[in-house]
Amino acid sequence: MTDTAPAAPAYAGPARVLSGVQPSGALHLGNYLGALVKFARLQHEIDTFIFVADLHAITVWQEPAALAQQTREIAAAYLAAGLDPAKATIFPQSAVPEHAELAWIFQCVARLGWLDRMTQFKEKSGKHKERSSVGLYTYPVLQAADILIYKATQVPVGEDQKQHLELTRDIAAKFNHDFAAPNFFPQPEPLIQGPGARIMSLRDGSAKMSKSDPSDYSRINLTDDADMIATKVKKARTDPEPLPETLEELATRPEADNLVGIFAALDGRTKAQVLADYAGKGFGTFKPALAELAVEKLAPVGERMRTLLADPAQIDAILAAGAQRAREVAAPTVAEVRKLVGFWGA
Ligand code: TYM
After folding, report:
1. Rounded to the nearest whole angstrom, what is the distance from the C-alpha of residue 183 to the centroid of ligand 1?
2. CATH number for the domain whose boundaries are 16-197+311-341
């Protein structure tokens, strides 16, 4: 047993992708570009596990009568964004109880000092830390269990999850070291790069686009219809200058930078390529082009979600089959962990 995380040796197991989204409110453009689009792309390249993080969602109060439906909505968003249940394993986290079991063991591996450094807890708990649930504090440990129970090697997420991925790597290294199992857990890599990794509020270029922002005009929801998407883009805060020539100049103008980043991410291009087309043009030209692109890319996703949600039994069947497949991978990992820890009967 040690108090610090030593460096881990190389892991030789197969590549696997894992990620998840909380069913704690309507999904927005940030979730779509930072996460869902990447999931749909990766499923063609690597064995992919994507779950609905309902255990994480209850770290803040969720109405019991609404939670199962919120879970179906996230599943519908996955499918609408292009995830294919024949390629990716799609499941609710709570349907694989091994996540919670491994999380407990990891709570005994992670150090209090590591969790004290987590900035998301500080943001989410605000001034009333002592009234937060204990789960909100230990939330990143459960996230490490989500990832490592499948021995995932790649984790596509937005930039706000970077610190949680670093903690996951520390927990993996310390577990491997403490239980003398050098190659047991991999060191998962976060997949964060690209202009969609940090989408900001449409009302304030210095605040992240978020489900919890009180202003609905701060975000584009995946369920917004074409008119609403166009209105929100046109009302987005900007400055009076035309778009600049260089990325350096763009970086000094948060609202302009955000809109160019959204354009680039939606169009599968870089910000530099977008500037090459729009440098010197004002927002009177750029915003209508962005509105048109956003409607073209997002409105069909919302449409597909509505169609899918009209048949909840089909979504439930996909989630049930996914949960069964997920348990087939998770249960053997936990059985091995139980042996390594030395539990009776393992
Ligand atoms: P959640 O539900 O807050 O967000 C889901 C995904 O969307 C990304 N994201 C963004 N990306 C770009 N710009 C934004 N403004 C933006 N807002 C959100 C998030 O980075 C995330 O990828 N803790 C996770 C859920 C989770 C998880 C995991 C993820 C639980 N266990 C294991 C990966 C692996 C969360 O709360 O995401």
Report:
1. 27
2. 3.40.50.620
